[in-house]
Amino acid sequence: MVQQGSTGVRAVGAREELLDPRVLARLESVVRLARRVPADPRRGLRLPGRGLEHGARRPYEPGDDLRLVDWPAFARFERLFLKLPEDLPPARLDLVLDGSGSTACGEPAPAVRLALAAAALAAAATARQTRTFLWWAGEHVARHVSARPAELVRLLRFLSERRPAGDGSGVARAASRLARTSRFRGEAVLLSDGLEVAALLEAAARLGSEGFSVHAVVAEVRDELSSAVARTVASAGTADLVDAESGQRRRLPWSGQLADRAGAARSARLATLARGFAVRGVPCEFLGTEEPFERVAWDRLRMRPARHRAGPERRSVGGSMAESRGERQRTPAPGARRAAEGLQGGPRRAARRSP
């Protein structure tokens, strides 16, 4: 029996891949690169606290600490004012990971690719002393917090225990919960297969209205069916299609046209999503099937934030997705190219010749 979701075929079984030692080794490479890239100055909301910089002032009251008296203000106004120290909020990154049933559909399964991309973003963030909150948006919203690179194994275990299920409304619920519970407003990244357009746009709008800097990562698929499943249903001639989100079943005679139609439907949804993100000013990048999952983390370490691109131009070819995309122009951040080349064995300066 073939289990097909809204536009794909269900294929779950990611625990072994997520816990593969080679995955952890690749994440450690991201950590090393993140530590070598110069950090940008921390910018954000200033909060009252025990900081070194001073912002607001209030009239002096008996018993206040005389070390905080603003003496230049006293010389000007002949009144005592107390300087209120300010503190920068802790650096924070929120990752909203789509856990709907459709993410388990397609080849390769977006659920695995999105989980690995989220782990790579967490590795880069924690290496730069940024606390990372991962919000699993499945049937039930779950949260995992990572503060150090040493906790990446726990993050991978958490992801391996999650099972994609339910509709895409979990993304909107997770975004709403994040907006309600988070005291600080930083960067929020939506990771999804892009099929639940309305829920994703609602989540982006909610987080943007609450002051978050919203980005989106969409995982693409190469085929709607794996080669093994395609051969099986072709020989059987019929397939029991089960919607991965609603559980509805339909038995249909199988032909290659069904896969082509599923691919066309997926392409149309992704194009609609890309236009919706563009209208809302949300940068969106597509993670291709042949690209390493670390690429989303590399982009944030080596480059300045990229401008929004409209999305891939796709066509359905024999049940598979083919896309033609333009090269994006990116501007390297200061010092980032040197750090990346040093890590990956890139070009080095030629040694000076002795006179």
Question: How would you describe what is shown here?
Answer:
The protein is 37% helix and 22% strand. The chain contains eleven helices and twelve strands. The strands form four sheets. A six-stranded mixed beta sheet has the order 5-4-3-6-7-10, with helices on both faces. A two-stranded antiparallel sheet has the order 1-2. The chain has a two-stranded antiparallel sheet with strand order 8-9. The protein is elongated, with a radius of gyration of 24 Å.
Task: Supply database-style keywords.
about 350 residues, alpha/beta, Rossmann fold, 6-stranded mixed β-sheet, two-stranded antiparallel ribbon, 12 strands, about 35% helix, about 20% strand, disordered N terminus, disordered C terminus
Q: Remind me, CATH topology?
A: Rossmann fold
Rounded to an integer in angstroms, the radius of gyration calculated over CA atoms is 24 Å
Stretches where pLDDT falls below 50 for ≥5 residues? 1-13, 41-53, 303-355
Mind telling me which CATH architecture this is? 3-Layer(aba) Sandwich
Global structural class: alpha/beta
Oligomer: single chain
Largest sheet entry: 6 strands, mixed
The mean pLDDT is 76
| Count of helix runs | 11
The amount of helix comes to 25-40%
CATH class: Alpha Beta
Short description:
It is built from 11 helices and 12 strands.
Please describe the topology of this protein.
Elements: H1 15-18, H2 21-36, E1 47-59, H3 71-77, E2 81-87, E3 92-98, H4 110-127, E4 131-137, E5 141-146, H5 152-160, H6 169-181, E6 187-192, H7 197-209, E7 213-219, H8 227-236, E8 238-242, E9 249-253, H9 256-280, E10 284-287, H10 295-302, E11 313-317, E12 320-324, H11 336-343
Parallel strand pairs: 3-4, 3-6, 6-7, 7-10
Antiparallel strand pairs: 1-2, 4-5, 8-9, 11-12
Helix pairs in contact: 2-4, 4-5, 4-10, 6-7, 7-9
